[in-house]
């Protein structure tokens, strides 16, 4: 069985298998070495993720431990409590507790699995006003970059406290001039270029954890390894 890499998150994860998405890029990158398994749930926050986590991941007896799990929540938790996405809002302290519980569940289930937390991305408030999810009579964005930054900071704190890896996407994206439109399609979700940033960061973190094309064996013999004079000999395992 090929080893697995799980992607667990909200819509930014669910959409990651779209054309040019960071998940599909990962699947292509590891096409002969690992299966990239999508577990993205549009609109979910950490409260809901924690509620369903036992349904999302198989019990240990039903398969080996995955190589890694990315945990990418926070964009919905950070919805403002006085705007139209209030039903997705999770207070900052609870967000931190929920992330701790998610990491604890994964590490108890699979002690050897590498967990990578990804912070929410920055928010382009102008983009959110131009692309509201529902009618927005207040004329105010339901998310702000400042709020997303607070949740990103807590995500990094959890990673440090749990001793797991983290990707500071909120900071990384804002290092690029014009990030608002270059990386975000509607002020929240990723453009093709934004997806590439996530892909590159995940590959970098996996490599730091010893997971790369150089360290993972290919699944079954590569064509270059097959004896031209006796091809079937290559399949004598």
Beta-strand content estimate:
5-15%
Q: What's the structural domain tally?
A: 1
Helix content: 25-40%
Counting helices, strands and paired strands, the structural category is alpha/beta
Order of helices and strands: EHHEHEHEHHEHHH
Main sheet overview: 5 strands, parallel
What name does CATH use for the topology?
A: Rossmann fold
CATH top level label: Alpha Beta
Strand order within the widest beta sheet: 2-1-3-4-5
CATH architectural name: 3-Layer(aba) Sandwich
Low-confidence segments, ≥5 residues, pLDDT <50? none
How many beta-strand elements?
5
Task: Describe this protein's structure.
The protein has 237 residues and is of the alpha/beta class. It has one domain: Rossmann fold, CATH 3.40.50.1110. 39% of the residues lie in helices and 11% in strands. It is built from nine helices and five strands, in the order βααβαβαβααβααα. Strands 2-1-3-4-5 form a five-stranded parallel sheet, sandwiched between helices. Helix 4 links the parallel strand 3 and strand 4. Helix 3 runs parallel beside helix 4 and helix 4 packs parallel to helix 6. It is globular and about 75 Å long.
